[in-house]
Amino acid sequence: DPGMFSSRAAFQVHIRNDAGKKTSVGNFNRFRKYVMRYDIDRVLADQSDQCIILVIRMTKIGFEGPDIRYMVETLPRNDG
């Protein structure tokens, strides 16, 4: 499909704590070429339980099929 090489995607994740404070990662206005999709693969916490760690799976168009890469984003818990 010749149109698949014009694909692009962006992501942004918003997390709101119980107190209503919102934290975000990513930029929904920054598109990357050849990316078909982003998915949250895992959600973890650091040892001190102060940060949330998101493992984001990025699926791109490769020469021999889908190419999967991983990104890690961290967010402070902001429980207060």
What does this entry show, briefly?
The protein is mostly beta strands and 80 residues long. It has strands spanning 8-9, 12-16, 22-26, 32-33, 35-45, 51-62, 65-76. A hairpin with a 5-residue loop joins strand 5 and strand 6.
Chart the SSEs and their pairings.
Elements: E1 8-9, E2 12-16, E3 22-26, E4 32-33, E5 35-45, E6 51-62, E7 65-76
Antiparallel strand pairs: 1-4, 2-3, 5-6, 6-7
Q: Can you characterise this structure?
A:
The chain has 80 residues and is mainly beta. 0% of the residues lie in helices and 61% in strands. A 3-stranded antiparallel sheet has the order 5-6-7, with no helix packed on it. It has a two-stranded antiparallel ribbon with strand order 1-4. A two-stranded antiparallel sheet has the order 2-3. A hairpin with a 2-residue loop joins β6 and β7. The radius of gyration is 15 Å and the shape is elongated. The N and C termini lie far apart (50 Å). The model has no long low-confidence stretch (mean pLDDT 82).
Number of strands: 7
**Main sheet properties:** 3 strands, antiparallel
Helix-strand pattern, N to C? EEEEEEE
Beta-strand level of the residues, as a percent range?
Answer: over 45%
**Helical coverage, percent range:** under 10%
Radius of gyration from the alpha-carbon trace, in angstroms:
15 Å
The average pLDDT score comes to: 82
Which secondary-structure class do the elements indicate? mainly beta
Distance between the termini: 50 Å
